[in-house]
Amino acid sequence: MENTQNIKLYKQSEKLDQSIYFGISRMEDIHEKHKGKADDPHRHDYYTVLLVKRADGKHIIDFKEHPLKQNQVFFIAPGQVHQVIEKNKSYGFSIVFSMQFLIENNISIQFIEDLNLFNFYGNYPPLSLSKEELEKLTHFSEEMIQLYKSSNVKFSTQAIGSYLKLFFIHCNNLCSLSSNEIKHNSPAHTILKKFKNLLNDKHQEWHGTAQYANALNITSDHLNRTIKSLVGNTAKEMIQSRIIIAAKRLIYFTDLSSKEIGYQLGFSEPANFSAFFKNCTGVSPSDFKKTSNIAFS
């Protein structure tokens, strides 16, 4: 497990059941509430979606800076570190929900995984929208916020779940990744799902494609081809990305030395970790520490 105890963590809160959580707010109301002050870099233990209608600023997700502007959708998975920095008041919606909320509303975990919208690590930009697409997603969001604020509407939670699913389906239809037409029960999809699970569990121990391929009883070449055909990156690239994200979080949010971080991430020699980090990012761990302090300020 990554040592992330120093990262601010926002946990779900719900009067009736903390595990079944949904919330939706207007971005302009959040801006007013915080008087325009940017929050510290933080992570959530729930899913977050930002539908941005109009904005000027930047959104930093796992140390990757994205322009915050009009007609965008951001998808932030649980555990990802992010920070919204606004130059002016943003307009749109912030939608948050727990996995249990999805389950209770018959939205399966498999459905979320198949969408390829939430990326737990890596470097995927926000989804850009046309005027018509923005209007459609705004309609779904307006319906959700009205239901969320209503206390006398029967089956409001189920209705919100239905609109949320429509929101995701519409986004998935716009997403370039959906063109691969991944079939839920295809052999390739099964490999992808098992690989992702292994990667989340073993990235601190297994750094080579062969280790994952052996666990899946396939060749490294087959694993790389399969993963690339579905998500656009090879298995090797995903492994490197997962390790680098873990390293960046530890470098920025802890006082551990490069040697200690390298050891925690499975590198037996400090020089190997430093070389790996610089090869993947172009900077040394110490230089990243300096530049990230500027980027996240």
From TrEMBL:
What are the leading ranks of the lineage?
A: Bacteria, Pseudomonadati, Bacteroidota, Flavobacteriia, Flavobacteriales
Q: Which PANTHER family match?
A: ARAC-FAMILY TRANSCRIPTIONAL REGULATOR (PTHR43280), TRANSCRIPTIONAL REGULATORY PROTEIN (PTHR43280:SF32)
- HTH araC/xylS-type domain location is 193-291
Q: Which UniProt keywords apply?
A: DNA-binding, Transcription, Transcription regulation
Q: What is this protein called?
A: AraC-like DNA-binding protein
One of the entry's Gene Ontology molecular-function terms is: sequence-specific DNA binding
From which domain of life does this come? Bacteria
